[in-house]
């Protein structure tokens, strides 16, 4: 053990491993662990019956289903179209490519409230896009999915894009020279390389969508039991000074999100291990 630490110190270009590790743990504890622990501690002030009554209320359960369902749908759609956009930006040259590449990052810079107002204006029944549809888009779960696609797309594009840039075309040419079709080259050569990045992009987009509030609240309609997302319920309880109820519902979202992200990380670890072994 001592020999390993000495070797690590000797191989480190920038000194200060102990100091930086201590700062990292302190920073994570103060910024991440301490606030999250307060959510749990505040929830513990409720009795089990009160806790269950709060988190299992039909209105809350409906918001869980809506929030997780729309986040999952938006994440899956972003996986498909985000990968296609990353492929186009890496593999092709066309006029205005840098502008398109810059537009991908627009959801990062644009205030979420502005995005929500813009989307609600476009997809409302009298909007520029919504008027061409026979069914409502804004103020329905479809509108929520569109808003979540908007804010989650950059995560998939920016995680897949570097992998494509590092993927040599010589591998594809070698696959073609061995008689593989384009579909076989994609499924057997390209896709295994992209899969870990795609899973990472999906997990980031999914996690971002779960907690999204600003862009969704304007296009959702916010009708209880229909288009009311969980973050809105939390905000409503905070406005009513029901801090314990808000933290109880936040705890459900936190635990469920952590469990899902842990599952995604296990899947990602399995895929990395599987393709590395092969």
From TrEMBL:
Q: How does it sit in the membrane?
A: Multi-pass membrane protein
- Where in the numbering of this chain does the ABC transmembrane type-1 domain appear? 64-264
* Top-level lineage group: Bacteria
GO MF term set: ABC-type sulfate transporter activity
According to the record, the segments passing through the membrane are 21-48, 68-90, 102-123, 135-157, 243-270
Q: Does the keyword Nucleotide-binding apply?
A: no
User: Is-annotated flag, keyword Zinc?
Assistant: no
The alphabetized UniProt keywords are: Membrane, Sulfate transport, Transmembrane, Transmembrane helix, Transport
One Pfam family per UniProt: BPD_transp_1
Query: Could you tell me where this protein is found in the cell?
Result: Membrane
PROSITE patterns registered for this protein in UniProt: ABC_TM1 (PS50928)
Any one Gene Ontology cellular component term annotated for this protein: plasma membrane
Principal subcellular localization: membrane
Family to which this protein belongs: Belongs to the binding-protein-dependent transport system permease family. CysTW subfamily.
Q: In UniProt terms, what function does this protein have?
A: Part of the ABC transporter complex CysAWTP (TC 3.A.1.6.1) involved in sulfate/thiosulfate import. Probably responsible for the translocation of the substrate across the membrane. Part of the ABC transporter complex (TC 3.A.1.6.1) involved in sulfate/thiosulfate import.
Summarize the subunit comment: The complex is composed of two ATP-binding proteins (CysA), two transmembrane proteins (CysT and CysW) and a solute-binding protein (CysP).
Name of the molecule in the record:
Sulfate transport system permease protein CysT
């Amino acid at each position: 053990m001592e020999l390993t630490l000495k070797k690590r110190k000797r191989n480190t270009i920038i000194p200060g491993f102990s100091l930086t590790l201590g700062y990292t743990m302190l920073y994570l504890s103060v910024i991440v662990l301490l606030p999250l622990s307060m959510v749990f501690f505040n929830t513990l002030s409720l009795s089990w019956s009160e806790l269950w009554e709060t988190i299992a209320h039909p209105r809350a359960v409906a918001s869980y289903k809506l929030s997780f369902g729309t986040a999952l749908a938006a994440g899956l759609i972003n996986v498909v179209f985000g990968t296609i956009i990353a492929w186009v930006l890496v593999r092709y040259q066309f006029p205005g490519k840098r502008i398109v590449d810059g537009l991908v990052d627009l959801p990062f810079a644009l205030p979420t409230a502005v995005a929500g107002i813009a989307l609600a204006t476009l997809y409302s029944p009298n909007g520029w896009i919504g008027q061409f549809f026979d069914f409502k888009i804004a103020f329905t779960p479809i509108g929520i999915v569109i808003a979540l696609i908007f804010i989650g797309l950059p995560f998939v594009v920016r995680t897949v894009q570097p992998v494509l840039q590092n993927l040599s075309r010589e591998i594809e040419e070698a696959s073609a020279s061995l008689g593989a079709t384009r579909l076989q080259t994609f499924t057997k050569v390209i896709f295994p390389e992209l899969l870990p990045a795609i899973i990472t992009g999906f997990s980031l987009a999914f996690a971002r969508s779960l907690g999204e509030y600003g862009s969704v609240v304007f296009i959702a309609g916010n009708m209880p039991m229909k288009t009311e997302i969980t973050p809105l319920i939390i905000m409503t309880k905070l406005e009513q000074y029901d801090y314990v109820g808000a933290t109880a519902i936040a705890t459900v979202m936190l635990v469920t999100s952590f469990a899902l992200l842990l599952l995604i990380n296990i899947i990602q670890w399995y895929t990395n291990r599987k393709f590395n072994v092969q």
